[in-house]
Amino acid sequence: MTVVIGFEGSANKIGVGIIRDGEVLSNPRRTYITPPGQGFLPGETAKHHRSVILTVLQEALDEAGLKAEDIDCVAYTKGPGMGAPLVTVAIVARTVAQLWGKPLLGVNHCIGHIEMGRLITNAQNPTVLYVSGGNTQVIAYSERRYRIFGETIDIAVGNCLDRFARVIKISNDPSPGYNIEQMAKKGTKYIELPYTVKGMDVSFSGILSYIEDAAHKMLSTSQCTPEDLCFSLQETVFAMLVEITERAMAHCGSQEVLIVGGVTCVCEKVCITVERTHDNRFCIDNGAMIAQAGWEMFCSGHVTELSDSWITQR
């Protein structure tokens, strides 16, 4: 039985997960949370990760009931992500691999989300909608590769939601997107916003600029409530994503769709075909998803040489 430990820390979450042949043995995580109206900066995020990563590593081993000698491979997020947090995780993973005498594997963060989703849902060949704070893509597997059929041409949908949350001072705890969702449930008035779909691609920067400007004017004159703005923004951006996902499904002849990434946590009611969003513990960035992708790679004969164990933000 193959046991892989995975380190994830590409953004504001630091996690260590352990997978044994498709079974999640442990998956502890910490989140760097900033005050309302603020985002998280790379340097400060990396400092947070450095302060807790060894504690999280020990928690993962204790929770799994394993020791270093029980681990077969060490996987880490190679990218994409924020530079400083990625470097922090890569250094720890490289150090652990050398101390324990284990092979090292650099994992693509996006593939980690997809492989974890496939493991949890048992989806065989889904069209994937990957939505998070840093990425928005429609992906399908074709000719032994994951192919991008559509994506954002500017900012990610999660970034759009996060930045709007800062405008109206919504709390970052547990996450801006979750709090926008709770407020949207109380919205009663739909405000028309720019809807930008270009073929298979989407654009969120225009809708963000528009609602940032409109929010202050409309709220100050009582034309709407913050809940109405959350409702309108969420409905518009999600409709854009559903449109390009359905188009990709038609193109691929796919009967199942898998939604992965942190924004998936607000998609509790999915009304398309056979798959729904999987367990929220595995939607948010976590170590187990890196361990699972690493497990797939390791069992296929892949390893990352120390000289190639760099990181990439893109």
UniProtKB/TrEMBL annotation:
Q: Which domain of life is it from?
A: Eukaryota
Q: By its UniProt entry, which InterPro entries does this protein fall under?
A: ATPase_NBD, Gcp-like_dom, KAE1/TsaD, Kae1_archaea_euk, Peptidase_M22_CS
Entry-linked PROSITE patterns: GLYCOPROTEASE
Q: Which Pfam family is one of those matched by this entry?
A: TsaD
Q: Which GO terms describe its biological process?
A: tRNA threonylcarbamoyladenosine modification
**Ligand binding (a divalent metal cation):** H109, H113, Y130, D285
Q: Which residues bind substrate?
A: Y130, V131, S132, G133, G134, D162, G177, E181
| CDD domains membership | ASKHA_NBD_OSGEP_like_euk
Q: Keywords for this entry?
A: Acyltransferase, Cytoplasm, Metal-binding, Nucleus, Transferase, tRNA processing
Instruction: Identify its protein family.
Output: Belongs to the KAE1 / TsaD family.
Name of the protein in question: N(6)-L-threonylcarbamoyladenine synthase
Q: Which organism is it from?
A: Cyprinus carpio (Common carp)
Q: By which gene is this protein encoded?
A: LOC109065341
